[in-house]
Write a structure and sequence with these properties.
Helix content is 30%, strand content 18%. By secondary structure, the chain is of the alpha/beta class. It has one domain: Alpha/Beta hydrolase fold, catalytic domain (Rossmann fold, 3-Layer(aba) Sandwich). It has an 11-stranded mixed β-sheet with strand order 1-2-4-3-5-6-7-10-9-8-13, with helices on both faces.
Length: 382
């Protein structure tokens, strides 16, 4: 475990960097959602409803990263412009500085990532309220997020899987991989990440859900020095058995980037992984194709995660820009084409990979208390 002084120094540096501009220029297209529930996580709710919103439209929940605002992330990623074209609704939960000084969703605090409490419950209350008020389709609700928002996306999918048809994690971390700030920094560096069946059981034991499970899209830059790309591999390992992803992945080159795709036993696409060549920490965008705006943590790498994610979920049929893709390694195609409505089934736990046992938690005792007391005194932890 890092020393107390090292931990506080890292957090202080992160806090000082949060003063850098993180709002992407452009109008604030979002409005506030009031009176959505008890809001135990004390989050703000913002929404975007297109002019041509139809009854039974899908809903996409978008979770910003640290130091960002909901409006800034929307302008950078282009979600509201895509929603306007295709007539689906958007919900942007927004962190408050009194909850986290750097505006990070608290993915590393157990009380905020447990079903029925904290930030995850606040977000579900927002979803339920918006679906009811606007007559949206409760079976086509999706969630995506960047960094801390990506880690909170994983928490939403684990704790309330029955609420979501799909998820997309950008530069995020596995569910329940940290229980405090020092552990969070270790996991961000790729140290001590959960492995084996215990990691997958953390997902299945987060609720009483038996399936079907939301399909999953995972994105990470291979030059990300803020959240190690090892986290993407850990997310895939955590969810592959839950989703029933079987066999060898189909691997496709998209320009200089790579996409891997896994199917379930019925041939349905349930898990994909984009590895972005040379990309650092942020959301991959392509302003030429999606109208997104490059800026802090919005990285123009010539591929639009927003468009690809929406197409993977089936809420848009826009033609994706050609990137010179070719199949470089493909699993055998299923002999029978599955129905579009085929639902994934969970792989039996006896078949889950178990390369190594999950690492045991360290007992931190008084050392941990000292760290947390210091962090609270510095205003870096609530």
């Amino acid at each position: 475990m890092p020393s107390i002084s090292d931990t506080i120094a890292r957090l202080s540096a992160l806090r000082s960097r949060s003063g850098a501009p993180s709002f992407i220029g452009g109008p604030d297209r979002l409005t506030d959602l009031q009176g959505f529930g008890s809001n135990p996580g004390r989050l703000r709710a913002r929404t975007f409803l297109p002019r041509r919103l139809k009854p039974g439209a899908p809903l996409v929940v978008v979770l910003h990263g640290c130091t960002q605002t909901a409006a800034g992330y929307d302008n950078g990623s282009g979600w509201s412009r895509l929603a306007e074209r295709h007539g689906f609704a958007l919900l942007f939960p927004e962190q408050r500085r009194e909850n986290n000084p750097n505006l990070c969703f608290n993915w590393f605090l157990p009380a905020d990532i447990q079903r029925g409490s904290g930030e995850v419950m606040s977000i579900v209350q927002m979803v339920d309220s918006l679906v009811s008020r606007e007559g949206l389709d409760p079976h086509r609700v999706f969630v995506t997020g960047l960094s801390a928002g990506g880690a909170m996306t994983v928490a939403m999918l684990a704790t309330y899987p029955e609420k979501f048809a799909g998820g997309a994690i950008i530069a995020g971390l596995p569910y329940a991989c940290a229980t405090n700030i020092p552990e969070a920094f270790e996991r961000m560096r790729g140290q001590g990440l959960p492995q084996g069946r215990a990691s997958q059981q953390a997902v299945t034991q987060a609720s009483q859900h038996n399936g079907p499970w939301p399909r999953l899209s995972v994105w990470h830059g291979d030059a990300d020095h803020t959240v190690s790309p090892a986290n993407a591999d850990a997310i895939i390992a955590q969810w592959s058995g839950v989703l029933g992803a079987t066999g060898q992945a189909e691997t496709e080159a998209l320009g200089r980037h790579r996409r891997q795709l896994w199917r379930d036993a019925n041939g349905r696409e349930v898990l994909q992984h984009f590895r972005l060549a040379g990309m650092g920490h942020g959301t991959p965008i392509d302003p030429r194709s999606d109208g997104a705006v490059a800026g802090p943590y919005m990285l123009d790498v010539g591929i639009s995660s927003t468009l690809h994610i929406a197409q993977f979920w089936g809420i848009t049929d826009e033609v994706l820009p050609e990137l010179g893709g070719e199949i470089v390694e493909a699993a055998p195609k299923p002999s029978q084409t599955p129905s579009h409505h085929t639902l994934p089934t969970r792989m039996p736990e006896s078949q889950w990979p178990d390369a190594t046992a999950a690492p045991s938690r360290r007992t931190v005792g008084s050392i941990q208390k000292t760290i947390e007391d210091a962090l609270r005194a510095a205003g870096l932890m609530r």
